[in-house]
Amino acid sequence: MAKKEVKTDLWVYNILKEASLDLEPQGSSVVEINNALKSASKNGTGNVGFPEYVGVVKDFLIVIENKADLSNHIKTDENGIISTDQKDIKNYAVNGALFYGHHLAKNTSYKKIIAFGISGNEKKHKISPIYIDETEYYRELPQVESFISFNESNIDEYYTREILKEATDEEKETAEILKDASILHEDLRNYGSLKDIDKPLIVSGILLALRESEFKNFSIDDLTGDTVKTDGQKIYDAIRSNLTRSNVSPDVKKDKILSQFAIIQDTKILNEINSKLKKTPLKHYTEFLNEKIYKSIKYSSSSEDYLGRFYGEFMSYSGGDGQTLGIVLTPKHITDLFCDLVELKPNDVVLDPCCGTGGFLVASMHYMLEQTKDETERKRIKQKQLHGFELQPYMFTIATTNMILRGDGKSNLINEDFLKQNTSKLQLKQPTVGMMNPPYSQGSKQNADLYEIVFVEHLLDSLTEGGRCVVIVPQSSMTGKTVEEQSIKENILKNHTLEGVITLNKDTFYGVGTMPCIAVFTAGESHPKDKKSKFIDFKDDGFIVSPHIGLIETEQAKDRKQHLLDVWFNRIESETKFCVKTTVQATDEWLHSFYYFNDEIPTDEDFEKTIGDYLSFEFSMIMQNREWLFKTPDEIKEDKKSEVK
Predict the structure, then answer these.
(1) Closest Cα partner for 426 from 469, 375, 381?
(2) Global pTM value
(3) Beta strands 350-352 and 543-546: pairing type?
(4) CATH topology of domain 325-600
(5) Which range (401-415, 531-545, 573-587) has the least confidence?
């Protein structure tokens, strides 16, 4: 076997291992498969033939055929169909993979086969999956960067989404959440005449009251529309009891939260029996939330920020997105990615200084809890290792409620301005990880202390030495055009280390109009001059915009994320069009687009296509009497002289 082939085989072995896929090289210990391969020669002789790797994942048979050179990836005929000529089966990865897949479909009992044609190396490669069933029908599937979608945990979801083209259980659940949010939003408006800012407070207050029903101190049946002790008073009392049970302290904090929920007992229309509903609006909302939302939160181990999702939906249905308040709620896939980028551990202490509805803290809590079964450690995580600040009183209330509902026994949230906090005092809490989505578009030359980069520096100064910090900010923050922002960037490099910046999908905050990026730092360690930071273009993240729904995850998302993490943690090399590693200056624009240059050598096909495109353009312009576009200034002058004569 050629040396280049061995390198490709080794690289494929490593990415299989990374995805927890245990396939066998050059044969199979499964008798049925091994017997079938005894007649699988690509020469068509009926002798033995082995693909590079083969194995079984659940009820799927996985087959892999490799080639070292990208030029040997695939050969198609004049109709664009994968060639089945014997020489092409031998010389091309995809053609060989298809051959083995068909042979195994015909000679084994396996009904679902995914064959991979792979070519290249870890830096430049193509991985092309093909689905084959027992009828020998095949479908070419989108190229992937890893095998993460094909391990035991993910392959069923991949099959449902990518091959059957059906919605997964998770997608159906998301669709239901969106539908329920729409219904509840309408009901809050129609039966309660509530302002947008009050809607999430009603939702979170009722959810706290429902939590008290588990202790027999609250029952939906008790909401009778009584005019002496109103439904609102009963819900309010249950909220007070649950805050006490949750050990929300000090009392001033509990009183702040209760004052936000006063609207439930004080709003007359909510406590009167509605002629159409035949009950009070509050009882109607409570029944709805109990059935549609509370049960989901109660039994969910997901990091999904349900209250955050509801809040975002309320704002979008109201014709606003919170931008006037600087509120940009962070999607679940970003909060989960933050945990991965800092490799969150059970002993970490997490600080989110602009916690909004608590999305980062919810994700962090679940991420840490998944890593330990020790009940003492789990209790410590919930009670002592999650800290947050939130300036807006109603958002603070929602965040506290969210954490309580997720099982956080003692929510360490503070309703104060983070920028006014003494960083030395904050360091006494020993925060090892900082996560933040700061208020956007609040800074200006007149309010330079509200630039997003100011929040970033203050957070870095608040962490322990060596702490990891990850933030999501507008790309303009990393550009830093103003004098004030440039100065802050200089200070950051003097005192902290920039690990890298990841440019995100422009629709990450769908409907908000923000071009976001993720920046990762190490706190308290001056940035070395020869340090090479990573700048990654992750705009193609596998998420797309779906009409009437918003940003949704496609099957490619897991694969794209795995590739990102593999590159970030130096498990694989990457082309510069995805990741540039370079030294940085404070005056640089800390973005992939600033450092990237195209280092790919054009192929003959690229050259021919470019020439063809140019000639087509030139012909089109000439036909429109615009041939002057292709003349030199001197030729144009001569033409004008001729016209004068």
Answers:
(1) 469
(2) 0.81
(3) unpaired
(4) Rossmann fold (3.40.50)
(5) 401-415
